[in-house]
Design goal:
The structure is a single chain. By secondary structure, this protein is an alpha+beta fold. The protein has one domain: Ubiquitin-like (UB roll) (Roll). Helix content is about 15%, strand content about 25%. It has 2 helices and 5 strands, in the order E-E-H-E-H-E-E. A hairpin with a 5-residue loop joins strand 1 and strand 2. The longest helix has 7 residues. It is globular and about 40 Å long. Its cofactor is [2Fe-2S] cluster. Keywords: 2Fe-2S, Iron, Iron-sulfur, Metal-binding. GO terms for molecular function: 2 iron, 2 sulfur cluster binding; electron transfer activity; metal ion binding.
Length: about 110
């Protein structure tokens, strides 16, 4: 793995996990990376924390993430099926500390 990449894994509905190399030197959010990797994320608001259509559930590595902003918390609080480990992928900028992160798309 290149030093500018981290491993991000996505758990599929069948329980299988797909590990991918994600660049940390491009300023991408997790949402942008997942969309570029052809995951079915609507991201209706384009990453402004206004719609919650990029919600993911963090299965491993939650302690590696930045603290949730008030805007992100307020948007997540509108979801009827919010989980304690739910985050907006648009608010998570990929960085070296996130290596080993495992997520699943919320509601799958």
């Amino acid at each position: 793995m290149e030093e500018n990449n981290i491993t991000v894994s996505v758990q599929h509905p069948d329980g299988s996990i797909h590990a991918m190399e994600a660049p940390v030197d491009m300023g991408l959010s997790l949402m942008e990376f997942l969309k570029a990797s052809e995951y079915d994320i609507l991201a209706t608001c384009g990453g402004m924390a206004l719609c919650a259509t990029c919600c993911v559930d963090v299965l491993e590595g939650e302690e590696k993430l930045n603290e949730m902003s008030d805007d992100e918390y307020a948007m997540l609080d509108t979801l009827p099926d919010l989980l304690p480990n739910s985050r907006l992928a648009c608010q998570l900028k990929l960085n070296p500390a996130m290596d080993g992160l495992v997520v699943k798309l919320h509601g799958t």
